[in-house]
Write a structure and sequence with these properties.
Blueprint lengths: L7 E5 L6 H12 L3 E3 H11 L2 H11 L6 H12 L8 E4 L5 H13 L6 E6 L2 H9 L1 E3 L6 E3 L26 H24 L3 E5 L4 H12 L1
Parallel strand pairs: 1-3, 1-4, 2-3, 4-7
Antiparallel strand pairs: 5-6
């Protein structure tokens, strides 16, 4: 365990800001699990839990999984023994109703959130980061047009398949995703600011520089 003391933390920030990378690094240093909603939804579906099946039914219809189902899946995860000493929630809550629901959940568990970290970066940087992403459709290896280029342009190093830009990462789609994020999540940032637990992390620079800012904010 490091000198960091805050162990029940929410990581907030727009797509492409790098919060997932920082969440896994901080969780390792704190000795607590990083809980990403996408991962626990997938896990619940794979295990075929009642909640997982419920979530799957929405996804099969191409619908968003409703807040109350997501919140119940998060609560189920936070009740597991490895979360007893703390947890890092990556990308949840994303809406104000989810923030209120999380408050009720941690109260039920007789704990409180220590900190909410908001990862902030200029929109232009985020569009550049996200629209530069390339993926191998065969083996899912990730690349980036600027920061993680394949040896041969447009071709996967591992299996030689032509790389693709996911629909989600097209510049127009990225701008729409960021606009939706701002509308949904600005009130969440304000909510934690009022609660007195919000710290903003400037998310430009190297992974190590941002990691040092996170460590300072959690000390």
């Amino acid at each position: 365990m490091s000198s960091m003391t805050a162990a029940r933390v929410v990581f907030l920030g727009p797509p492409g800001v790098g919060k997932g990378t920082q969440a896994s690094r901080a969780a390792k240093r704190l000795g607590v699990p990083a809980v990403a909603t996408g991962d626990i939804l997938r896990e619940a579906r794979q295990k075929g839990t009642p909640l997982g099946k419920e979530a799957q039914a929405y996804m099969d219809r191409g619908a968003l999984v409703p807040d109350e189902v997501v919140v119940r899946i998060v609560e189920e995860r936070l009740r597991q023994p490895d979360c007893a000493k703390g947890f890092l929630l990556d990308g949840f809550p994303r809406t104000l109703p989810q923030s209120h629901a999380l408050d009720r959940t941690v109260t039920k568990l007789n704990v409180a959130l220590d900190r909410a970290l908001f990862f902030d970066a200029p929109e232009a940087a985020l569009v550049q980061r996200l629209s530069g992403r390339r993926t191998c459709p065969k083996c899912q290896a990730p690349y980036h047009a600027e920061t993680n280029k394949p040896k041969r342009e447009g071709v996967c190093d591992r299996c030689g398949t032509a790389l693709v830009t996911r629909d989600d990462d097209q510049p127009g789609t990225v701008k729409r995703r960021l606009a939706v994020y701002r509308t949904e999540t600005a009130p969440v940032v304000e909510f934690y600011k009022k609660a007195g637990i919000l710290k903003t992390i400037p998310s430009e620079g190297t992974i190590e520089e941002i990691e040092a800012r996170v460590a300072a904010a959690l000390a």
